[in-house]
Amino acid sequence: MGLFGFLKTNDINVEAEGREENSVLVDVREQDEYVAGHIPGAVNFPLSMLGEADTPWDKSTPIYLYCLAGTRSRRAVGILQSKGYANVKNIGGINSYHGSLEK
User: Fold this and answer.
1) Extents of the domains making up the chain
2) Which residues have CB under 8 Å from 50's CB, separation 6+?
3) CB–CB of 63/80 below 8 Å?
4) N or C: less crowded end of the chain, CB within 10 Å?
5) pLDDT for 7
6) Which residue out of 42, 47, 63, 67 is catalytically annotated?
7) Above 70 in pLDDT, residue 8?
8) Which residues neighbour 67 within 8 Å (Cβ) at sequence distance 6 or greater?
9) Active-site residue, 2 included
């Protein structure tokens, strides 16, 4: 990774559509944000609960995380990694998503 490689962001449109089979797409925004519109197939697990609550996924499950702009999902990656999850990925923010939203 180059000096500024940490600034590289994933394309949420590509990642949401091309994610691994048996993966989980997780919206880490708060419930009211999720209800207002989310990527189809996503489950809601707010960042505010992620550190405290038990997570329902197997530790080897591929997990794709997103929020509004990518900041909360980046923090969520660290939280899940500290809980032993090995295959977590921040795919960015829904504000860059071009597909239709589910309500």
Assistant:
1) 11-96
2) 28, 76, 79, 80
3) yes
4) N
5) 52
6) 67
7) no
8) 27, 28, 29, 47, 73, 76, 93, 94
9) no
Q: How far apart are CA 76 and CA 88, in angstroms?
A: 9
Identify the DSSP state of 3: T
Asked if 86 contacts 62 with a C-beta cutoff of 8 angstroms, the reply is: no
Q: Look at residue 102 and tell me whether its pLDDT is greater than 90.
A: yes
Give the predicted TM-score (pTM) of the model.
Answer: 0.90
The 3-class SS string of 26-74 reads: EECCCHHHHHHCECCCCEECCHHHHCCCCCCCCCCCCEEEEECCCHHHH
Domain 11-96, classified CATH 3.40.250.10, yes or no: yes
Biggest distance spanned by C-alpha atoms of the chain: 40
